[in-house]
Amino acid sequence: MGIAEIEHRERLLRRRAVAILAGMRRVQVYLPHADEGSIVLFSVHGRSAAEVGEHLDRRGIAVRTGLHCAPGAHRLLGTPEGGAVRASFGMFNTEADVIALCRAVKELL
What we know:
CATH topology: Aspartate Aminotransferase, domain 1
Largest sheet: 4 strands, antiparallel
Distance between the termini: 38 Å
Order of helices and strands: HEEHEHEH
Structural class: alpha+beta
Strand order of the largest sheet: 1-2-4-3
């Protein structure tokens, strides 16, 4: 698989995750229309980023939470005080991984 195919797959996974997460009440997806990269940044209203991350971790889903060494970017985006949750998709992720992430987030709602 070449770099172009990897990028295409990662973008498809990101788009799928954004589409599902953005459709959930109480979930805020930041920069949902960005078409570059494979990162989804989101928050769940009423839950801290740390709480969401711990919930996902207990289900075997690895994400990064907080301000991601970029507090200025988080201020610009308007994320909650404790930052947001970042899911990153790579070449070894699958559609099943996207579904697992979204189901786990839905459990919090």
